[in-house]
């Protein structure tokens, strides 16, 4: 029995597996996962029932095997019989399970009503719903459905992309962009990582690697061998203790000295101090003598120190009888012998100190004591190139103690003082010394230059003077005033009225070109190559006419006409046409010059039949206005203005007495007043009622801008932009750098990655999400408005501006295009002036 | 009598060390420095002339291919490395500093249709006429190793282009449809189709990396969204678009190189009309690539020249050509914004400066300041006729020059005709179509 059961148990897993497989065969097409989920349940059932029906199970198994074999034979799947393999808590001995057998009845359960819901209710509802609906909507066609999906996707995607709008706008408008946008710090891979990744492959590499490894060179971060590490770690305790004791002692000694010094300082006796000083001085001398005998090298060093001292003295005002004490002594000197003596002593001391100590060559070192006496005083020597340097320096005068300082350390009598003095003066001394050294160094550096410049000292001074004294000669300055660049002039130009006809031409260059065609070409492509500087020059010199001919037809036509007139007489055919015009004009004008005398003649002619009373009204209204006389006066004035002025080179004071209120003699004026050559005849000399301004310089015009360029909206803006210089000649260094900062900066050798959300942390695309869609159209509208404004501007101006100067129009000359009176520009010199004038070229008078 | 002597403090004019710059005291009083406009004008003129004199953009030619160069790819991490594929199936990797070919692979049978590098720069992909997609290691094989692709995917149809995702291990190919592949799988993750046509190029958006743009031979440009695996919108133009390129700084802007000699810059949100039409080429535009700053792009054309366009201008600022350069098929702008590479039919890759007159190498600070100043002056006086004239002058080969002239005449004639037609017909019956709208046939949702 026991074996039986064990066998049964042993078999159970196998059987389960088989059952599983069978079940899977059945279930796989439908739902494989479900079958697997059922497995544990089945196993539990088997385990539960296994204990009771072990002997029966063997037979059952056999039976099943048989069934399986049969089903396998037929090859067709049989409909599976219902199988009772569910898990159940209570299994009765009659193999019948009753649900809820073990549970107790609760009273409340019994009290609940039996299901009141009739199953028909829902059916009825459904029926009603179906009746209400006429027909089911057809599903969308595949194409339509796809389209809907696409549209939805496009809307969301473009919204997503639109988040970048703000960033893009910002970058487009940015004054300066630095690429790469994210400045990443270059990281250096540590040595150990680099070496660990690398492997020796070729035989040579392997050999080298082997050699290296033999020595066991460390490759990790602290590049120390084992011994080195050990030595670093070891620091003996003894040593540390010694050092600490030393430090303690030094500190204690220092405090003693400090206390002592304080005490000595408090001594007020002058005599004590004087004695102290004297003894120090004496001691120093003695010591120096000794030193000189024993150690000439050290003596030399001392001598240099003395030199230093002397320099200090020279810089100080100490012994120059300028101090308060000295002045008081000077007052007293008349009466007091002692005071006189003291003063003299001080002066002597000053002299002594001021004397230059010559640093001897090595062989002359024997008599250093005589050196100071032998030397001439440095003050009056003219050898120094710079007389300024011989005076008193502007640097701060050193403290009175300064000169005593260096000597202090040699006093034997006041050894105890030595340290304290040093202590006190160290700080001041260090400051002063630094200062002195600074001076000294500067001077030393200057020396080589000075030597080189010595000869030409005068010249350099003279040259240095020049820029200060002669900025611009007066005549030149006057010219500058007249120069065409002057702002007043520019304003004038800007305000120039435009005759309506010209303005119209300006506005409509051609019968509405499409926007693309209107846009200027960026390149002018040619068949020949520009290779040298000369070629480029030539390029510039080429006639602007050629370029302008390419412009739109009407303008070109007009230009052509003008040119023909300019060189009338070249070609026969053209000449006739042009000449006829000229002749006719002249005939008209020359025929009736006396018409000028009766100003209202044309009016009379027109109004002969109009009625006398109207004429009377008009004459009454304009009784005070003598228009024609005004015009004549104006023309005369214009003629006067354009007449070449004589050049006045008279300088007062040369060759005769000068001074205020004196005038140069007539003879001199006559001699130095240079007459200008007569101007070419005026073009309007035969046109009595026209003023033709001849101020326009054709040579300059070739360099001037004829139309208002795109981003500008008014002439004034453009002129303003031209007028502000950017160069370092007119701007400080900082301003220059700011003005010329490039728009885009890239760093060579750096990869510029596409922009990403991390590059714009503050204006993250999330922030601009709501801007997305509508921002772009707004920008477009702005742009459009701008363009319209730019175009409309000249027209508006032309309308607003005066067509004819001052309303004093010509009574007659309206018919001819030539007669367009053009306002003169003030003071346009002969120099070609670039920029400033963004005026149409048509406006010029021929 | 007191005599005043001229004396100056040397501290004011003597420099402290020899290495210091000489101190130049300067009075900025404008009265002392007259004629500022005139003087600056002259300086600007000189700067412009010098720019033209020093404009020598051609740097070198990389030769070694045995057939026309069909495609190129930039290395994403190394500036000195560039890859090129030829019409005989050969792929070459070049070192630009040495101007040498460092590796040659016989990658495909027939053309190498497209290539792209993986975003990390460790490997690259090629597609060829032999219907395969191959992935190669960027490093040359080790000592004793065979030159073999890492992966090879055999497809059913010919792939005509490939592009790699900018951040993920995903790439897209195009041919009969746009396929999006995972690098790990041998079958595409998804295939995007919209009608049946052969797609010539596909490009990932570098900023919003899930976006794709493709252009097909039935004259359209299609945008796709990878997340939803659906096409978004389609624009049909007058003629076929050869390639497109996304702006690396502006997520929604892309430029399409068209067969009708023009380039069109679109905003993907408003496809009804392009933002700008760039015209200047006189033959089909074959390739386009943006500068990494997103301010300019370079285009390669069948007319044997390459042109550089500012993004916001309708005409080119620069044209490059040489006598020996034939139809330019592919062009790339290096990712440091300094150089341009173009591969052409006559088997050469040419290296150009992006800024023709730029001085290469390290500049001294004063040089740099002078350069900036000159640049500013040129910018300031650019509207003056003489300066504009010099700055715009370019030499062109006769063929291109003549064609430009011819086309100008044709355009003028067309314009005149339209004008006449408008004049002689009922007002409003001949509408005024702006240039931007002229080339768009339809937008399909």
UniProtKB/TrEMBL annotation, chain B:
<feature type="domain" description="Sof1-like protein">
    <location>
        <begin position="354"/>
        <end position="440"/>
    </location>
</feature>
<keyword id="KW-0698">rRNA processing</keyword>
<dbReference type="InterPro" id="IPR015943">
    <property type="entry name" value="WD40/YVTN_repeat-like_dom_sf"/>
</dbReference>
<keyword id="KW-0833">Ubl conjugation pathway</keyword>
<dbReference type="GO" id="GO:0016567">
    <property type="term" value="P:protein ubiquitination"/>
</dbReference>
<keyword id="KW-0687">Ribonucleoprotein</keyword>
<dbReference type="GO" id="GO:0080008">
    <property type="term" value="C:Cul4-RING E3 ubiquitin ligase complex"/>
</dbReference>
<keyword id="KW-0539">Nucleus</keyword>
<keyword id="KW-0690">Ribosome biogenesis</keyword>
<protein>
    <recommendedName>
        <fullName>DDB1- and CUL4-associated factor 13</fullName>
    </recommendedName>
</protein>
<dbReference type="GO" id="GO:0032040">
    <property type="term" value="C:small-subunit processome"/>
</dbReference>
<dbReference type="GO" id="GO:0000462">
    <property type="term" value="P:maturation of SSU-rRNA from tricistronic rRNA transcript (SSU-rRNA, 5.8S rRNA, LSU-rRNA)"/>
</dbReference>
<keyword id="KW-0677">Repeat</keyword>
<dbReference type="InterPro" id="IPR019775">
    <property type="entry name" value="WD40_repeat_CS"/>
</dbReference>
<keyword id="KW-0853">WD repeat</keyword>
<feature type="repeat" description="WD">
    <location>
        <begin position="321"/>
        <end position="362"/>
    </location>
</feature>
<dbReference type="Pfam" id="PF04158">
    <property type="entry name" value="Sof1"/>
</dbReference>
<dbReference type="InterPro" id="IPR036322">
    <property type="entry name" value="WD40_repeat_dom_sf"/>
</dbReference>
<comment type="pathway">
    <text>Protein modification; protein ubiquitination.</text>
</comment>
<dbReference type="Pfam" id="PF00400">
    <property type="entry name" value="WD40"/>
</dbReference>
<feature type="repeat" description="WD">
    <location>
        <begin position="278"/>
        <end position="319"/>
    </location>
</feature>
<dbReference type="GO" id="GO:1990756">
    <property type="term" value="F:ubiquitin-like ligase-substrate adaptor activity"/>
</dbReference>
<feature type="repeat" description="WD">
    <location>
        <begin position="62"/>
        <end position="104"/>
    </location>
</feature>
<dbReference type="InterPro" id="IPR001680">
    <property type="entry name" value="WD40_rpt"/>
</dbReference>
<dbReference type="InterPro" id="IPR051733">
    <property type="entry name" value="WD_repeat_DCAF13/WDSOF1"/>
</dbReference>
<dbReference type="InterPro" id="IPR007287">
    <property type="entry name" value="Sof1"/>
</dbReference>
<dbReference type="GO" id="GO:0007292">
    <property type="term" value="P:female gamete generation"/>
</dbReference>
<comment type="similarity">
    <text>Belongs to the WD repeat DCAF13/WDSOF1 family.</text>
</comment>
């Amino acid at each position: 029995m026991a074996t039986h059961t064990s066998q049964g148990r042993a078999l159970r897993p196998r059987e389960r597996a088989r059952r599983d497989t069978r079940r899977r065969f059945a279930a796989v097409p439908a739902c494989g996962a479900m079958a697997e989920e059922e497995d544990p349940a089945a196993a539990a059932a088997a385990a539960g029932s296994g204990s009771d029906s072990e002997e029966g199970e063997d037979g059952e198994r056999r039976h099943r095997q048989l069934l399986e074999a049969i089903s396998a034979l037929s090859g067709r799947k049989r409909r599976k019989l219902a199988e009772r393999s569910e898990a159940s808590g209570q299994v009765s001995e009659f193999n019948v399970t009753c649900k809820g057998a073990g549970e107790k009845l609760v009273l409340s359960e019994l009290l609940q009503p039996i299901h009141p819901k009739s199953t028909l209710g829902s059916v009825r509802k459904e029926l009603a719903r179906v009746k209400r609906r006429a027909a089911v909507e057809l599903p969308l066609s595949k194409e339509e459905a796809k389209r809907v999906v696409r549209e939805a996707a496009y809307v969301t995607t473009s919204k997503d992309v639109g988040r970048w709008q703000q960033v893009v706008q910002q970058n487009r408008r940015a004054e300066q962009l630095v690429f790469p946008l994210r400045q990443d710090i270059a990281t250096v891979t540590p040595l150990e990582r680099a070496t660990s990744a690398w492997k020796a492959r070729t035989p040579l590499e392997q050999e080298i690697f082997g050699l290296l490894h033999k020595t066991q060179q460390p490759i990790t971060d602290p590049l120390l061998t084992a011994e080195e590490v050990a030595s670093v770690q070891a620091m003996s305790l003894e040593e540390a203790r010694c050092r600490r004791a030393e430090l303690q002692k030094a500190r204690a000694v220092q405090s003693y000295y400090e206390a002592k010094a304080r005490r000595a300082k408090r001594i007020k006796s002058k005599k004590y101090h004087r004695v102290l000083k004297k003894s120090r001085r004496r001691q120093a001398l003695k010591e120096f003598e000794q030193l000189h005998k024993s150690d000439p090298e050290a003596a030399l060093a001392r001598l240099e120190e003395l030199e230093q001292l002397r320099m200090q003295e020279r810089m100080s005002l100490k012994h120059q009888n300028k101090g308060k004490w000295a002045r008081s002594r000077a007052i007293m000197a008349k009466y007091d012998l002692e005071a006189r003596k003291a003063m003299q002593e001080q002066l002597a001391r000053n002299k002594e100190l001021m004397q230059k100590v010559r640093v001897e060559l090595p062989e002359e070192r024997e008599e250093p004591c005589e050196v100071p006496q032998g030397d001439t005083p440095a003050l009056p020597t003219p050898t120094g190139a710079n007389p300024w340097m011989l005076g008193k320096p502007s640097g701060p005068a050193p403290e009175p103690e300064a000169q005593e300082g260096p000597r202090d350390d040699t006093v034997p009598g006041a050894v105890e003082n030595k340290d304290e003095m040093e202590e006190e003066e160290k700080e001041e001394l260090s400051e002063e010394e630094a200062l002195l050294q600074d001076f000294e160094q500067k001077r030393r550096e200057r020396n080589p230059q000075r030597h080189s410049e010595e000869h030409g000292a005068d010249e350099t001074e003279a040259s240095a003077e020049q820029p200060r004294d002669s900025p611009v000669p007066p005549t030149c300055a006057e010219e500058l005033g007249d120069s065409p660049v002057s702002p007043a002039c520019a304003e004038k130009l800007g305000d120039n009225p435009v005759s309506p006809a010209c303005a119209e031409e300006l506005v409509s260059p051609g019968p509405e070109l499409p926007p693309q065609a209107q846009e200027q070409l960026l390149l002018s492509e040619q068949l020949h190559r520009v290779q040298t500087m000369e070629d480029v020059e030539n390029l510039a010199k080429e006639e602007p006419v050629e370029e302008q001919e390419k412009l739109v037809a009407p303008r070109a036509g007009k230009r052509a006409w003008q040119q023909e007139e300019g060189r009338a007489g070249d070609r026969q055919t053209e000449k006739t046409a042009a000449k006829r015009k000229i002749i006719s004009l002249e005939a008209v004008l020359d025929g009736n010059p006396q018409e000028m005398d009766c100003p209202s003649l044309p009016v009379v002619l027109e109004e002969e039949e109009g009625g006398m009373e109207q004429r009377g009204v008009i004459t009454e209204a304009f009784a005070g206005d003598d228009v024609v006389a005004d015009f004549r006066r104006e023309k005369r004035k214009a003629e006067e203005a354009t007449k070449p002025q004589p050049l006045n080179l008279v300088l007062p004071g040369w060759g005769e007495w000068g001074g205020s209120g004196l005038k140069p003699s007539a003879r001199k004026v006559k001699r130095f007043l240079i007459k200008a050559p007569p101007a070419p005849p005026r073009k309007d000399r035969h046109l009595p009622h026209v003023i033709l301004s001849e101020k326009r310089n054709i040579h300059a015009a070739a360099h001037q801008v004829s139309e208002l360029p795109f981003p500008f909206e008014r002439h004034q803006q453009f002129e303003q932009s031209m007028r502000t210089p950017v160069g370092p000649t007119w701007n400080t260094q900082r301003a220059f750098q700011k003005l010329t900062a490039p728009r885009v900066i890239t760093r060579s050798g750096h990869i510029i990655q596409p922009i990403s959300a991390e590059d714009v942390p503050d204006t993250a695309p999330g922030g601009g999400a709501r801007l997305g869609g509508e921002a772009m159209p707004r920008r477009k509208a702005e742009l459009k408005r701008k363009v319209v404004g730019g175009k409309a501007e000249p027209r508006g101006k032309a309308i607003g501006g005066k067509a004819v100067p001052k309303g004093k129009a010509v009574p007659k000359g309206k018919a001819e295009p030539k007669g367009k009176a053009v306002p003169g520009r003030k003071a346009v010199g002969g120099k070609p002036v670039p920029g400033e004038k963004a005026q149409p070229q048509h406006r010029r008078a021929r | 009598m007191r005599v005043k002597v001229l004396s100056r403090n040397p501290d004011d004019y003597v420099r402290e060390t020899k290495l210091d710059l000489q101190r130049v005291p300067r009075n900025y009083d404008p009265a002392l420095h007259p004629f500022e406009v005139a003087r600056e004008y002259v300086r600007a003129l000189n700067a412009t002339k010098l720019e033209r004199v020093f404009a020598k953009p051609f740097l070198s030619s990389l030769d070694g291919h045995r057939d026309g160069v069909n495609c190129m790819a930039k290395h994403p991490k190394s500036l000195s490395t560039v890859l090129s594929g030829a019409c005989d199936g050969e792929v070459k990797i070049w070192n630009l500093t040495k101007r040498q070919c460092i590796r040659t692979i016989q990658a495909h049978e027939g053309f190498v249709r497209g290539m792209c590098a993986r975003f990390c720069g460790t490997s690259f992909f090629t597609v060829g006429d032999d219907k395969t997609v191959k992935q190669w290691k960027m490093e040359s094989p080790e000592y004793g190793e065979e030159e073999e692709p890492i992966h090879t995917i055999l497809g059913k149809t010919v792939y005509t282009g490939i592009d790699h995702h900018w951040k993920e291990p995903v790439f897209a190919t195009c041919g009969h449809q746009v396929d999006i592949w995972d690098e790990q799988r041998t079958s595409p993750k998804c295939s995007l189709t919209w009608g049946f046509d052969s797609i010539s190029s596909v490009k990932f958006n570098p900023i919003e990396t899930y976006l794709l743009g493709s252009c097909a031979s039935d004259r359209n440009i299609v945008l796709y969204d990878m997340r939803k695996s659906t096409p978004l919108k389609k624009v049909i133009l007058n003629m076929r678009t050869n390639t497109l390129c996304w702006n690396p700084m502006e997520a929604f802007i892309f430029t399409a190189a068209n067969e009708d000699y023009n380039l069109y810059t679109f905003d993907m949100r408003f496809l009804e009309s392009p933002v700008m039409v760039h015209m200047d080429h006189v033959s089909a535009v074959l390739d386009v690539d943006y500068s990494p700053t997103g301010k300019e792009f370079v285009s390669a054309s069948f007319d044997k020249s390459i042109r550089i366009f500012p993004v916001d201008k309708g005409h080119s600022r620069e044209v490059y050509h040489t006598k020996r350069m034939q139809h330019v098929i592919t062009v790339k702008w290096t990712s440091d914004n300094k150089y341009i590479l173009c591969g052409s039919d006559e088997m050469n890759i040419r290296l150009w400066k992006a800024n023709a007159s730029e001085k290469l190498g390290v500049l001294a600070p004063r040089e740099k300041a002078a350069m900036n100043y000159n640049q500013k002056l040129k910018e300031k006086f650019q509207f003056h006729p003489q300066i504009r004239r010099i700055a715009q002058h370019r030499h062109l080969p006769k063929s291109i020059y003549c064609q430009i002239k011819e086309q100008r005449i044709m355009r003028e004639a067309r314009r005149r005709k339209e004008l006449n037609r408008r004049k002689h017909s009922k007002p409003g019956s001949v509408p005024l179509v702006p240039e931007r709208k002229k080339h768009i046939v339809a937008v399909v949702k």
